[in-house]
Design goal:
Elements: H1 33-37, H2 51-54, E1 66-84, H3 86-92, E2 100-106, E3 112-122, E4 127-143, E5 160-176, E6 181-199, E7 202-204, E8 214-216, E9 219-240, E10 243-250, E11 253-263, E12 276-285, E13 288-298, E14 301-310, E15 317-319, E16 321-322, H4 327-334, E17 338-340, E18 346-356, E19 361-370, E20 388-399, E21 402-413, E22 416-418, H5 420-423, E23 444-460
Antiparallel strand pairs: 1-2, 1-3, 1-23, 3-4, 4-5, 5-6, 6-9, 7-8, 9-10, 9-11, 10-13, 11-12, 12-16, 13-14, 14-18, 15-17, 18-19, 19-20, 20-21, 21-23, 22-23
């Protein structure tokens, strides 16, 4: 098995990095403990080190050199159950007299860490420089393959795992035009990771000169890394002492991946092909536009509201290009060369609140709705996506120049049900429910809940 090198530049030692998470699309839902605790409604407020991500224009109002460190532990709990109706199951499971459930499992219990480190340095009264390293994106899953033999060609030793993620290094400049208006830009250097383990499928090799021979490809694995660039532009307007309005635009970033793929059984076939092949993919992290409002209706109370739009339709298909002999032909035959996504653009609506019990102690809470960009026809166990309702809460405690914060995010995913009858089409089994649009979906009942505790430490230099 080939492994991609995952070494980043030295800045990455500041973080406990894992790009894998379970938010919708490819984005983590919240960066920074204060922002997370306020439901990620932070574009209009943007007044701590996480502004590098949310709205870098907020950095223009910093008066002190500041260092911030944020970490979050993402703890998913996913379920997957496949029920085969008797009308079809009687052909697949001879002797069955009722509906059959060949799969009833859950995700492996794991902790996935993400985070951010940032340093803010005022250069003059109006100009501020900063640099941040953070994990903005991640999607994936990990399952116990012994429970998935029904979709693994009857094999119990197939691993099912996916991981797509990105780490961003973001040098930033923010300029305060006046006491009411600021603007900023970040140059985003993006390092992407893409890993998959799954069943390689079975293929009839007649098309390449070996007639009437079906081969089980066994375990398929690929691991890739790549680089891309982009930018974040932010504006912040403070019409009065109680109101702040923010606007953020993040450009698309095309990441060009390269690495290796392995098919466990390919080397044993009489076609002279190696079991490993170089490959490459291109994945575009999409445009993100957000507008936010922060308002102080009372001296100790801050309310925030965000609308955040993501152009997920850029994620249409994830196509692999193989350079190994006959690899392209074989993978096209097993339909493993293209992962169809067909995602839709989505808007998130977020709300947050902070109440200061004293100058040292603040309580926070938030809520948002996160709609899945993935249609039912491409739902699968490797890159699952859900409609989430999310509640958040947290607190911050100041000790002079040191600020300590803790927060919690609980994501409640709506179950997704992809009927087996829509996806199964194997003559001579009669199945009038078969829908060609669902040919690449993995049927079953999916569920997901996520708990994410977080902490941050901020230090302001005198």
């Amino acid at each position: 098995m080939m492994k991609s090198k995952k070494c980043l530049v030295a800045l990455s030692v500041l973080l406990v990095l894992s790009p894998l998470a379970f938010a919708n699309g490819l984005n983590l839902n919240s960066i920074g403990t204060r922002a997370l605790s306020m439901g990620g409604a932070f574009v209009g407020l943007a007044n701590d080190f996480s502004a590098i991500y949310w709205n870098p224009a907020g950095l223009a109002f910093f008066k002190n050199k500041t260092f911030g460190l944020f970490g979050v532990d993402i703890i998913p709990s996913g379920t997957y159950k496949l029920t085969v109706p008797y009308s079809l199951g009687k052909y697949i499971f001879p002797g069955s007299t009722t509906d059959t459930t060949p799969i009833d499992t859950k995700t492996q219990t794991k902790h996935y860490f993400a985070g951010m480190a940032a340093y803010i340095h005022p250069i003059s009264e109006n100009l501020v420089a900063a640099i941040g390293v953070y994990t903005p994106s991640g999607l994936g899953s990990s399952w116990d393959g012994t429970q998935l033999s029904f979709i693994s060609g009857g094999q119990t030793n197939i691993e099912w795992m996916s991981k797509i993620g990105m780490v961003t290094i973001a040098p930033t400049l923010a300029y305060k035009i006046s006491d009411k208006f600021s603007l900023a830009a970040s140059f985003n250097i993006n390092y992407g990771m893409f890993d998959i383990k799954m069943y390689g499928g079975s293929v009839d090799l007649t098309a390449i000169g070996i007639p009437n021979t079906a081969y089980n490809m066994g375990q398929y694995e690929e691991s890739e890394t790549g680089w891309g660039v982009g930018a974040t532009i932010g504006l912040l307007f403070k019409p009065d002492d109680k109101t702040s309005i923010g606007l953020t635009f993040r450009t698309p970033s095309k990441v060009k991946f390269s690495g290796d793929a392995t098919l466990a059984n390919l080397g044993a076939l009489p076609i002279g092909a190696l079991s490993t092949s170089p490959l490459d993919r291109e994945i575009t992290w999409p445009m993100w536009i957000a507008v936010g409002l922060a308002f102080n209706p009372a001296e100790k109370l801050t309310l925030t509201f965000d609308g955040q739009w993501t152009q997920w339709s850029k994620i249409f298909e994830l196509k692999a290009n193989y350079t190994g002999a006959v690899w392209g032909t074989l993978m096209a035959m097993t339909k493993k060369d293209i992962l169809p996504m067909y995602w839709d653009d989505k808007m998130q609506i977020r709300f947050g609140a902070e109440y200061r019990l004293s100058t040292a102690l603040a309580l926070r809470a938030g809520y948002y709705i996160d709609k899945s960009p993935s249609p039912n026809k491409t739902m699968n166990i490797l890159l699952p996506s859900y409609d989430f309702q999310v509640v958040t809460f947290g607190l911050g405690y100041s000790l002079g120049s040191l600020l300590l914060e803790a927060g919690f995010e609980y994501l409640i995913g709506a179950d997704r049900d992809i009927p087996f009858a829509k996806t199964f089409n194997k003559p001579p089994i009669p199945n009038p429910m078969y829908d060609l649009d669902y040919a690449r979906a993995v049927p079953g009942l999916y569920g997901m809940k996520i708990f994410a505790p977080t902490i941050s430490i901020t230090y302001k230099f005198n």
